[in-house]
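Notes from the pairing session

We agreed to fold both candidates in a single pass and log them together. This is the raw record for the first candidate, unedited. Please don't reformat it; downstream parsing expects exactly this layout.

Candidate A
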Amino acid sequence: MKKRLASFLIFALLFSITLSAQQKPKFGLILHGGAGSIKKGSLTPKQEEDYTKMLNECLQIGYKILEEGKPALDAVEAVINHMEDSPLFNAGKGAVLTSDGVVELDAAVMNGANLAAGAVAGVHHIKNPISLARLVMEKSKHVMLISDGAERFAKENNTPLVDQEYFIIPARLEALKRIKAREEEEKKGKTVTSVSYWEDTKRGTVGVAALDVNGNLAAGTSTGGVMNKKYGRVGDSPIIGAGTYANNKTCAVSATGTGEYFIRLSVTKDISSLMEYKGMSLKDAADEVIMKKLGELGGDGGIIAIDKEGNIAWPFNTDGMFRGYYLQGGQPVVKMYKD
């Protein structure tokens, strides 16, 4: 009787372990389209519909690539390409404008399998900066190339360049005009507090983190930076360990928010390090960095992340963040407000 009971318990334990392993997703992706003052009522029904549709499209694109057994890097690049081509986000077409009225783009990508990384910053004519960042990672000896040098590298590698007019949309031009006008009013001692939807400077950066069927992680981030930024300003997105990070031992992370704070805290690397050195879960590590450290320093924003086990996290300390995930065995999930 005791032997039968012991055998049954062993069987039950093994079955439970097997079932648990089967339930864990072998692949999946999580993405963001920027964090900021995204409150209910700040978007029109049409805008809500457009963002929901676009985020779902992106999840489907990435999921199909991963389902076919292709690398996480391929999914990250393809999804971000789609977001860079959309005027809905502050990346590629539709990016925010500098104080001089031009577009300056930044992007980075990282391979968790070997810690290879590539980044570009301050480029003016690259249609898809995330693809150029991957080229820097795979076709050069460097990690980051900037401005004219990055564009020279792009030409040498047959990357198509586009005119500035391609990126600039009317809504961004109007927003810059309103911001300039508000600055003039403030110089006169007047207090101006109204900020419209398109004037919010902390919204629209895009990022993706993915886990493929081979257990490899990858992350990528692309942005136009901050509206009305000064010439040459670079935020956290293209800086490995600040706005973008991936390590197969821990997780893949992409950030969005006030870049200067993410740089000072090395946010994405800090999350990975808390997992690696302190044994923290992805959720606990992400909450520690975003909900505690970032807030205490005075920064705002959020991250999306996936770990080597397929667990996900997306903490943010703003009113909202365009975000979504799609894991093996589940359905695509899209959100934008602080639910």
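Candidate B (folded immediately after A)
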Amino acid sequence: MKKIFKILVSPLLFLNKLYKKTNHYNNQFVDVRKFTGNQAFTLDILHDLDIVNLGSNQPKFAFDYTRTGIKGMNWAVGPQTLEYDFMILKKFHSFLKESAFVVIPICPLKMFLYKFSNVSSVVKYYGCLDKDIIPDYDETQYKHDFKYPLIWHPKHMRFLLKDVQPDRRLELAYNPMSEDQIQSDADYWIEGCWNREFSIDICNMSPLSDLNKKLIQTNISILKDMIVFCLERSYRPVIVYLPVTESLGNKFSDEFVDKFIKAYVNKAISGLDIPVYDYMKDRRFQKNEYYINSFFMNRVGARFFTEEFMKDLKW
């Protein structure tokens, strides 16, 4: 019986192994490869890092240390919550030099998001974090979506015949969108993404729901804990509000930025001497040519922004 079972299962395991080599499967791990395999942390040259940044998609595209002459690394993983920023920091902080800078970017609605709205966002962490520290670890999800994805999702068999393109957005050095498309993209982030996800109206803010208030308070506590974690280990935490295009920046009133973004950060860092850099509407970095849409920078923009940021840090 065991022999028959093995004969039946072996082909499936082989196909599963092949599927795990496809772009369709591996695109979800683009951001965590720097923590695994023959990547960053197997190379001695990337120990004793001088600076790292955490964060989600916006900082993933905004930081590029390659031309700064500084031993820095972009630890952003998209999408990512503050809770997982902290998990990444806890897992890999030993690769930092004493007194290294730890840049904590605060994206526009970062403090509203505590748990992932899409549980599939957790899968990427199964390859780089220990399961006992993953807040949302699920053994069933681990087996179905990470270890044996083809067996549990047989429709994915089609990607063995015709794969999707690899995710190469980080390589873009131009903005593929027209001005009208960039404006539409800015509208999407407000109306189709954040307003819908958090049940708010960014342009006409009303009092927040009890749920929003609870989740924001949780993130304030996480952010404070992250900063204390850094200070206790002689790292230098820095808060950064990253730039966006003029089209997207104009969607946020100064009142909204002060009341629904900065106020929460100020609570987290109250009583602590933490540098804060605000580039959200900095006109130096708002040109469409520095982005791939209205929100995420391209390589040209990222290198320019990172070089200027290093100057502001007095590196």
